[in-house]
Amino acid sequence: MTEDLRSEEEARADRLVRIGQPPRNRSEAMRKLVWVVPWLVFLSAPVHDLTSGHHTTLATAAGWVGWTAFVAAYLAVVFRTMGRPYAGWTVAALVALLGALAVTLALTLGGSWIGLFVYVSVSCGVALPLRAAYWTIPLTTAAMMLTGWHAHDLDDAWGLFLVVLLIGYSMTGVRQLVRTTVELRKARATVAQLAANEERLRLARDLHDLLGHSLSLITLKSELAGRMLPDHPDKAAQQVADIEQVSRQALVDVREAVTGYRRPRLPGELAGAQVALTAAGVTADLPAEPDLTDVPKDSESALAWALREAITNVVRHSGAQRCVVEVVRRQTLDGPMLELSVEDNGSAGSGKGPGNGLTGLGERLAKVGGSLEATRLKHGFRLVARVPAGVPVSSADVGSPA
Q1: Which of 127, 182, 326, 397 is most buried, with most CB under 10 Å away?
Q2: Closest Cα to residue 128, out of 156, 162, 152, 93?
């Protein structure tokens, strides 16, 4: 199940546009471009000005050349910043070119071109270093106001004053958010790698502790048996018997260790359930790490299997939008019990009876003295699994005097 959920999550991640990373193919490049193009709405005024016929043919042609150069420089700055950024001096040159084109076009062609300063401010906030952005954004706003004053269109400049100022600073916030997201992604990958390395080291230590002494003793006794065999066959036979006993004990120790590695833990399954439900688009309401004091390992393992089976059913078959998981302790006539409840608001599949998974799960819980209840609700499904949470108190112990 874990491998299936991991593959589903990776496939879902591959379909998403990666924030702060270069596009991997043409389709992803187009999706990134879609995020940039709608913000070109402020270019509608210059386009309308060029197509209205208010300028001479030479001025209109020059205006189209300047408009095209401005859009190309803006897209180059913003689009490359979303993937493989240019070098610092290239970015500075392009932002300076945008500012110069905005001033020149607004002064020569009129106040309809004042909106170009919005893109200059965005470029400052997105592409320049933060220290530089903090002073170039108000500088861009001041340049816009002076340009509007010289172009006798101060009203439009005042109308865009807050837009130019705030959108630049908002882009610096978005930029830092993207950077934080990328760093968190790298940190998660690093933590996962460290956890895997720690698990390998733990396995190596356990195997060394389990088998190091046993194998050394087997080697020593084998050498002794070989030396005693010609003259003392009885003593050699005793050494061989000791070798057999040590080997059997080593085999038991290894099997117990492997069983411990394979036994699922409830906290780990809760964490996996959170990831699985989130990846499937299901709103998850899960408890914090449960109190497992005095809970037998077999009981915890059975409850972890129950949670895994329940979450699998929710993700694959229910079509639910919400899933609530609760882990509580209850005192019953049979002693303390640890109860797991998984409830969703989905359809719970189309089957009329319990599936093979629930049947096997009920048998697993019964082996440790637990029970399973599966209830179809009016709008959803509820699974309740109970396991012993301690040593039951016998009636003799309860009735005995202190």
Answers
A1: 127
A2: 93
Question: Sign of torsion, CA 16 128 185 277?
Answer: negative
- Rounded CA-CA distance 134/17 in Å is 28
Of 379 and 99, the structure prediction assigns the larger pLDDT to 99
CA–CA distance, 124 with 88 (Å, rounded to integer): 12
393 pLDDT band, cuts 50/70/90, is very low
260 or 44, higher pLDDT: 44
Q: Tokens for 100?
A: 């110069």
d(CA 165, CA 120): 11
pLDDT in tens, 108-166: 888 888 888 988 998 888 888 888 889 999 999 998 899 888 877 777 778 888 888 88
Is there a contact between 168 and 140 (Cβ–Cβ < 8 Å)? Answer: yes
DSSP string, 147-176: HHHHTT-HHHHHHTHHHHHHHHHHHHHHHH
Q: Per this entry, what is the length of the chain?
A: 402
Contact in structure between 88 and 103 (CB atoms under 8 Å): no
CA dist 124 and 103 (Å) reads 15
Question: What angle is formed at CA 64 by the lines to CA 60 and CA 65, rounded to 5 degrees?
Answer: 120
Query: How far is residue 29's CA from residue 340's CA, in Å, rounded to a whole number?
Result: 46
The pLDDT value given to residue 356 = 60
User: Between the CA of residue 51 and those of 64, 90, 106, 117, what are the distances in Å?
Assistant: 10, 33, 16, 21
Distances (CA, A) of 157 to 143, 343, 363, 380: 10, 57, 76, 57
Q: What is the pLDDT of residues 196-224, one digit of tens each?
A: 788 788 777 777 777 777 788 888 888 88
Residue 70: alpha-carbon gap to chain centroid:
38
DSSP-assigned letters across all residues of 229-280: TTT-HHHHHHHHHHHHHHHHHHHHHHHHHHHHHHS--HHHHHHHHHHHHHHT
**pLDDT digits 0-9 by tens, 166-176:** 888 888 888 88
Backbone angles phi, psi at 385, to 5 degrees: -120, 135
Q: What burial class does residue 305 get, using C-beta atoms within 10 Å of its C-beta: 0-12 exposed, 13-18 middle, 19+ buried? A: buried
